[in-house]
Design a protein that fits this description.
By secondary structure, this protein is an alpha+beta fold. It folds into two domains: about 100 residues, EF-hand (Recoverin, domain 1, Orthogonal Bundle), CATH 1.10.238.10; about 150 residues, Ubiquitin Conjugating Enzyme. It contains eleven helices and six strands. The strands form two sheets. Strands 3-4-5-6 form a four-stranded antiparallel β-sheet. The chain is elongated. InterPro entries: EF-hand-dom_pair, EF_Hand_1_Ca_BS, EF_hand_dom, Ub_conjugating_enzyme, UBC, UBQ-conjugating_enzyme/RWD. GO terms for molecular function: calcium ion binding. Keywords: Calcium, Repeat. Pfam families: EF-hand_7 (PF13499), UQ_con (PF00179).
Length: about 280
């Protein structure tokens, strides 16, 4: 009886172009595409993945993309064809499909980070990704005990850009708060201009969540000094918000007891969830 050919077979001549680690990454990424586990990626599987990244494409266009790399005419992308596409990409021969694969690598990383947080959450944080776009998260942060934010639940929006993790996600707080590191705008949200000065490419979403929790426990007024000293206010911060932020900053530094009183009151008024029925 003839042996069954390995569905993930790659010729040695092609395999030698990549390290063992790179080949393992390719296989992991390919299996994310191949949801049926049959060793090939068809138009339906490709469409599902694209939809999860908020990319919409007609089936005819998907089939034409597959045909570019489908050397044996099976109507699917097999693993050896996937690796050949990555080889061509390394040589500067890119196409629309290979560019999408590059984008999907980041999406896989973000998805893995979410699953890791779902399995082992940062204490006091709950992450809910958007159904149609894994690069957007809603994050609920419980105010830590022994702080003016105790009992409050604070909602954040995370938007991961194409340069993540080399650049931080765009983070905005969507719950009203009195906190030295969050300048509330007229629409009731607060941007995080200071995040760029803290971020390094070694950070991941878990690191960011842990730092946010720490900021609730131990606010950092020094992060705001460059923002308030800037000749021009950041584009997201208007005159009224800037004035409110400076007042909050001064209360925190000069009148800490009054700061705690105001922060506690605003937490009770705007961030405390209603009792469950």
């Amino acid at each position: 009886m003839a042996a069954t050919k390995d569905m993930y077979y790659v010729p040695d001549s092609l395999r030698r172009e990549f390290s063992v680690h790179e080949m393992a990454e390719f296989l992991e990424q390919f299996k994310e595409f191949d949801t049926s586990g049959d060793g090939g990626v068809d138009a339906n599987e490709l469409s599902t993945l694209m939809e999860s990244m908020n990319i919409h494409m007609e089936k005819a266009e998907l089939l034409s993309l597959i045909a570019i790399v489908d050397e044996n005419g099976s109507g699917q992308i097999e693993f050896n064809e996937f690796v050949l596409m990555m080889s061509n990409l390394r040589r500067g021969k890119s196409n629309k499909l290979s560019k999408f694969v590059q984008m999907s690598k980041q999406a896989f990383q973000i998805r893995q980070e979410f699953h890791a947080l779902d399995d082992n959450p940062v204490k006091g944080c709950r992450v809910v990704p958007f159904k149609q776009d894994m690069r957007q998260w809603t994050v609920f942060l419980q105010g830590p005990a022994d702080t003016p934010y105790d009992g409050g639940v604070f909602r954040f929006h995370f938007q991961f850009g194409h340069d993540y993790p080399y650049e931080p996600p765009i983070v905005s707080l969507q719950t009203r708060i009195y906190h030295v590191n969050f300048i509330m705008l007229l629409d009731g949200t607060a941007p995080t201009e200071w995040l760029a000065s803290m971020w390094t490419p070694d950070w991941r979403s878990r690191t960011l969540l842990e730092r946010l929790v720490l900021l609730f426990r131990d606010p950092k007024p020094e992060l705001m000094i460059p923002i308030y000293n800037a000749r021009d206010a950041p584009p997201t911060v208007g005159t009224t918000a800037r004035s409110f932020g400076i007042d909050c900053f001064n209360q925190f530094v000069e009148h800490p007891d009054e700061f705690v009183r105001i922060a506690t009151e605003i937490t009770k008024q705007y961030a405390t969830p209603p009792p469950s029925v």
